[in-house]
Write a structure and sequence with these properties.
alpha+beta, 6 strands, about 130 residues, elongated, about 20% helix, 6-stranded antiparallel beta sheet
Length: about 130
């Protein structure tokens, strides 16, 4: 059975047409899985490096989202990202109203960030 902790990211793909993010990973026992984020609204990744290692993916509190990413949101607001909005309350209300979950991607090494999506599921696979 696949475990996220200490799994190595093999690849990730963002499908803008279908609003789908897929992260392929392999855990310490060699189990492979696709971490699937469906119906995403926005995401932000940092430190994308080969051999990135996940620590965990946790659900954050939507009420903390705008404060957690205040600097990034302020810098990108004038460019309509992640949407056109007047203030943090409008953005937070939109996220809540549309049923998005705030997934925090924590790394031991490399790729980390967050995803706002309606669902996350894990699908094991073999090469």
């Amino acid at each position: 059975m696949f475990t996220i902790h200490d799994s190595k990211i093999l690849a990730y793909q963002v499908d803008f047409e279908n609003l789908h993010i897929e992260i392929k990973a392999v855990d310490e026992k060699g189990n492979k899985a696709k971490l699937l984020f469906e119906d995403f609204f926005a995401y932000h990744f940092e430190d994308q490096l080969p051999d990135s290692v996940l620590f965990d993916i946790i659900e954050g509190d939507i009420n903390d989202f705008a404060e957690d990413h205040k600097e990034l949101l302020e810098k990108s607001k004038d460019y309509g990202w992640p949407m056109d909005y007047r203030n943090a309350k409008v953005l937070t209300d939109h996220i809540k109203k549309n049923g998005y979950t705030y997934y925090i991607v924590e790394a031991s090494y490399g790729l980390n960030g967050w995803i706002l999506a309606k669902r996350m599921r894990t699908e094991e696979y073999s090469s």
